[in-house]
């Protein structure tokens, strides 16, 4: 689990990232990134909607995979960014390795990892 200081928690934070952030599209994810204007730690949010899968088990598996990737790589991320990862429908049929590879390629596009 990500420490609280590394999590986006409020609706206002998510809305700000969606309205002003830069969108990177991968095969299984959209990653939206916005500088939060400080040198504090980067914060992350994860969205996996009912459109991805009707099964809560599958949605939670995808969320756990994303959070696991972020937690493993958090030391290498730039500071002062707000990042929202939105899962696409195609993510539900993939294994963890494929999800990790796509996340890594999305984050590499903006030099986060």
From TrEMBL:
<dbReference type="GO" id="GO:0001682">
    <property type="term" value="P:tRNA 5'-leader removal"/>
</dbReference>
<keyword id="KW-0819">tRNA processing</keyword>
<protein>
    <recommendedName>
        <fullName>Ribonuclease P protein component</fullName>
        <ecNumber>3.1.26.5</ecNumber>
    </recommendedName>
</protein>
<comment type="subunit">
    <text>Consists of a catalytic RNA component (M1 or rnpB) and a protein subunit.</text>
</comment>
<dbReference type="GO" id="GO:0042781">
    <property type="term" value="F:3'-tRNA processing endoribonuclease activity"/>
</dbReference>
<keyword id="KW-0378">Hydrolase</keyword>
<keyword id="KW-0540">Nuclease</keyword>
<dbReference type="GO" id="GO:0030677">
    <property type="term" value="C:ribonuclease P complex"/>
</dbReference>
<dbReference type="InterPro" id="IPR014721">
    <property type="entry name" value="Ribsml_uS5_D2-typ_fold_subgr"/>
</dbReference>
<dbReference type="InterPro" id="IPR020568">
    <property type="entry name" value="Ribosomal_Su5_D2-typ_SF"/>
</dbReference>
<dbReference type="InterPro" id="IPR000100">
    <property type="entry name" value="RNase_P"/>
</dbReference>
<dbReference type="GO" id="GO:0000049">
    <property type="term" value="F:tRNA binding"/>
</dbReference>
<comment type="function">
    <text>RNaseP catalyzes the removal of the 5'-leader sequence from pre-tRNA to produce the mature 5'-terminus. It can also cleave other RNA substrates such as 4.5S RNA. The protein component plays an auxiliary but essential role in vivo by binding to the 5'-leader sequence and broadening the substrate specificity of the ribozyme.</text>
</comment>
<comment type="similarity">
    <text>Belongs to the RnpA family.</text>
</comment>
<dbReference type="GO" id="GO:0004526">
    <property type="term" value="F:ribonuclease P activity"/>
</dbReference>
<keyword id="KW-0255">Endonuclease</keyword>
<dbReference type="Pfam" id="PF00825">
    <property type="entry name" value="Ribonuclease_P"/>
</dbReference>
<keyword id="KW-0694">RNA-binding</keyword>
């Amino acid at each position: 689990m990500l420490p609280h200081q590394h999590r986006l928690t409020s609706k206002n934070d998510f809305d700000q990232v969606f309205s002003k952030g830069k969108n990177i599209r991968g095969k299984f994810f959209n990653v939206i990134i916005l500088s939060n204007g400080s040198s504090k730690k980067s914060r992350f949010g994860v969205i996996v909607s009912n459109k991805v899968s009707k099964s809560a088990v599958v949605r939670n598996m995808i969320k756990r995979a994303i959070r696991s990737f972020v937690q493993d790589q958090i030391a290498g991320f730039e500071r002062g960014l707000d990042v929202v990862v939105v899962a696409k429908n195609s993510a539900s049929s993939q294994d963890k390795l494929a999800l990790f590879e796509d996340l890594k390629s999305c984050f590499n596009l903006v030099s986060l990892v």
